Amino acid sequence: MIPPKKFGIWGNTDKDLFWKVLPEIISWSSHNAMEVYLTTRILDHENGANLNSRKISSKDDISNLDFMLVLGGDGTFLSLARAIEDRSTPILGIHLGDLGFLAKVTLKDLFPRLDQVNKGHYVVEERILVQASIDKDRKKINQVALNDFVICNGQSHRMLNALVNVDGHMVGNYRSDGLVVSTPTGSTAYSLSAGGPIVTPKVDSLIITPTAAHTLTSRPLVVPASSKIIISFPDTDDAIQFIADGQIHEILDSTCTVEISKSDYNVSLIDFDDTDYFETLRKKMGWGKRGDQ
Predict the structure, then answer these.
(1) Which domain holds residue 259?
(2) Residues 180, 178: Cα–Cα separation, whole Å
(3) Dihedral sign, CA of 72, 78, 84, 90?
(4) Which sign does the torsion angle of CA 87, 91, 95, 98 carry?
(5) Does residue 1 belong to any structural domain of this protein?
(6) Is residue 275 within 8 Å of 122, Cβ to Cβ?
(7) 117 plus 143 within the same structural domain
(8) Do 75 and 181 fall into the same domain?
(9) Which residues of 50-73 are buried (b: 16+ CB within 10 A; e: fewer)?
(10) Do 288 and 211 share a structural domain?
């Protein structure tokens, strides 16, 4: 890969650890003759008032950067992935806690990994996103997510009645606490906790997983990523919640329909030849602990 010359920083400004490591990164960039750009959120923060760095004023500024460095948890990573949209700027995720599925580099490996990126010793991995077009009050609401969309009843906590069609074919009437439609990236998130399968990122697919299904015959379903999933809500009086990546909320009703498909663009992640997806799974899931001890 071509060694980068400039990069941006996106971070969880609520974490003290972020403010501790930020000056070290800025110092590293100066030592390596790289330009660093900070988001307005960082520079407007009381801790960022004295930082003498270039500003990312808009999403379009991200297009001119060689990569984005995101510091936080997987939630911070998800917010950046949505903000980048169809811009091809790759993301390098640094987890400020334990190892994450998205932010895969830990703080102890931060500067060795940055040195690798500076030398062009990295690979770019493409991940699909999922998009939703919501028909509400004769208007279209568009959302995109890297992990998943979750649909559930609002404050009533009653059973969700959702009719699911895939490519014009009726799949079934799901009676459950909710539905999760996830990408392979999101298969290790909420979908997994609801009993969905783990799908490796290179499998081009979408996963439909009911949460707490009220019938034993309702099971997770994996469909091709090219599928068009349409969800409607017959005989429903309650308000329905639609949630993108656990962060963006919409309130729907029985007149709404949701059309879900693979996004027209991908998000690019910086990775390294020596990282191992299954090793991350073992560490996060605690697989094989007894045998390893």
Answers:
(1) 129-264
(2) 7
(3) positive
(4) positive
(5) no
(6) no
(7) no
(8) no
(9) eeebeebeeeebbeebbbbbbbbb
(10) no
Residue 120, phi then psi, degrees to nearest 5? 80, 15
Catalytic hit among 14, 16, 61, 74: 74
End-to-end alpha carbon distance in the chain: 39
pLDDT digits over 184-202, tens only?
A: 999 999 999 999 999 999 9
Whether 115 and 13 map to the same domain: the answer is: yes
Tokens coding 263: 């996004």
* 74 in active site: yes
Query: What's the rounded Cα separation, in Å, for the pair 52 and 26?
Result: 10
Q: What are 52's strand-pairing partners?
A: none
Residues 60 and 75: their CA atoms lie apart, in Å, by 22
pLDDT at residue 292 above 60? no
Residue 137 lies in a domain: yes
Contacts with 44 (C-beta within 8 Å, 6 or more apart), sequence order? none
pLDDT tens digits, 15-35:
999 999 999 999 999 999 999
Six-digit token string for 97: 């806690």
Averaged pLDDT for residues 37-62? 91
Domain membership of residue 54 (yes or no) is yes
Strand 240-244 to strand 248-252: parallel, antiparallel, or no bridges (unpaired)? antiparallel
Compute φ and ψ for 248, nearest 5 degrees.
-110, 125
Please list, in sequence order, all residues whose beta carbon lies within 8 angstroms of the beta carbon of residue 101, skipping any fewer than 6 positions away.
Answer: 74, 185, 188, 189, 280, 284
243 in the same domain as 150 = yes
The backbone torsions φ and ψ at residue 177, rounded to the nearest 5 degrees and listed phi first, read -70, -25
